[in-house]
Amino acid sequence: MKFPIDDWQFWIATGAFIASAWWVTRSLVPRLRRRRLAKRATLTIEGRPARRARRRR
């Protein structure tokens, strides 16, 4: 069996498949960027912000 690479319908169906596979893969793969850009929580003690510790050099 030979692929009909000269047929326009073959390329439309192939493009639709690639686009849908990309969309499904993108939605299933965990987003690593969100983990890197996560904000740190502010530590509070009795409703007041805790003092920051000094960094040693």
Give a quick set of tags describing it.
57 residues, mainly alpha, 2 strands
Brief write-up:
By secondary structure, this protein is mainly α.
What would you say this structure looks like, in words?
- By secondary structure, this protein is mostly helical.
- Helices cover 46% and strands 7% of the residues.
- It is built from two helices and two strands.
- The chain has a two-stranded antiparallel ribbon with strand order 1-2.
- A hairpin with a 2-residue loop joins strand 1 (44-45) and strand 2 (48-49).
- The longest helix is centred in the N-terminal third of the chain and has 21 residues, at 8-28.
- The termini are far apart.
How many β-strands, per DSSP? 2
N- to C-terminal distance? 70 Å
What would you call the quaternary organization?
Answer: single chain
What percent of residues are in strands?
A: 5-15%
Strand order of the largest sheet: 1-2
- What's the helix count? 2
Summarize the helix and strand pattern as letters.
HHEE
Main beta sheet: strand number and arrangement?
2 strands, antiparallel
Overall mean pLDDT score? 78
Structural class determined from secondary elements: mainly alpha
